[in-house]
Sigma-54-dependent Fis family transcriptional regulator (Aquabacterium olei), 494 residues
Amino acid sequence: MNAIDLPTVLLVDDEVRSQEAMRRTLEEDFRILTAGDAEQARALLEQYPVAVILCDQRMPGQTGVAFLKEVRARWPDTVRIVISGYTDSEDIITGINEAGIYQYILKPWVPDHLLDTVRQAAESRSLQGALHRMEIDLRAGTGVLRQRATEQLARAKDTFDFGRIECSPGSPVEEVCRMAAKVARYDLSVLVHGESGTGKELLARAIHYASGRAAGPFVVENCAAIPDTLIESELYGHKRGAFTGAYDDHIGLFQRADKGTIFLDEIGETSPAFQVKLLRVLQEGEVRPVGAPKPVAVDVRVIAATHRDLEADVRSGRFREDLYYRLANVTVTMPPLRERGGDVALIAQRLLDEVARSLGRGALRFTADALAVLQAYPWPGNIRELNNEVTRAVALSDPLAAPDGAGLIDAHAFSRKVLQGAGSEVSQTRPEGGLHLDIPQSGTLQERLDRIEAAVLRETMLRLRWNKTHAARELGLSRVGLRAKLQRFGLEPK
């Protein structure tokens, strides 16, 4: 080790021979500085980082304890040692209490003892410094982690706020969100009913982040995907070696969700065995991992979701009645998209913005014609189907240019299925892809025929991108006859 890398020891003694004796004892292990009095010592302390200071007690002008009391105030990290030929107990007590003396060394000192004492003092200072730095780093790190966690929680609360669930004034979803927001404040189990793709998980997340458990985990599990052979392991966890193939400890769903919320999707698809295991957790508030000697308490809020009529399943014996009432403290129903006509445009535009960002496209919006088609289509796959259709339209279309520079997605960008499905007031798609029109149930014969004719014309024109020549040929009309019918039904393109 180079001399510059050695710990520095300052020797303060008015006797030169004593200084030299201590220097010879310590110089192989330490970098040595010497001072004849307190004033010289102060000057050196101002210039160099001193690890250990050895000071004679009896010096002209100022005693060693008095000087080291000043050192303690100005250079508290320096380890202070007094060398004295006197055993005055009052000096020792004063030194320990006021000057923070590390150790007294009595004259005549023994070289090996002096060297060991200074080594221990230097090591003590080094350890204290390391602990201090670790404490600072830990505090800083803890603060950073706490700040990050706070920021992440704030973002999650904003992302999954009830206000982010798109709905227009008067939408049935407004009442659903109002009810769910009230329930969120209380630690009740919630059963969310609705068709696939209606946003049941989004509502469950909004409930979680509006509750007192928002800082806890939100664990999602598709119950239909858990085989009966793994039910206990998935719900409760297992210990290493509990069964063949259990090579490591596994934390179960309920332990992962402790102090938070667990969202059990497709709860209506579970087997009787699953229902029994789940009921035990909800009743006892604890789980016993497979192979564990004792149970573990868990504090979890349960939100379950299903597209099935669980009350009917209870009556038929397919679903346990006691589990149903454990899960359904409160039941809310997410309406299908076909019952949210006023919400389709809002949801579609939000999805369009998200897809455009993910695909690296600029700002996009739908034309009025495109929105009319989206609102007319019944969306049997609900929001998932709408998202797929919007993604397809963005990926495959060449948007028109709007005056403000945004791209316009026209109805021509939609799939044939959607164009055909939107072609009548109540429409479905045949397995072979053909258009099926339900006969209107009101109006005179001519009025009903007119409505069917208008629907066929609209679907054909949209599908053929308003190419009148092709449409006239397909419908067996002349261009003049087609134009007359379009004018009659007000179907000229906007």
Notes: Residues 272 and 319 are 7 Å apart (CA to CA). The longest helix spans residues 111-159.
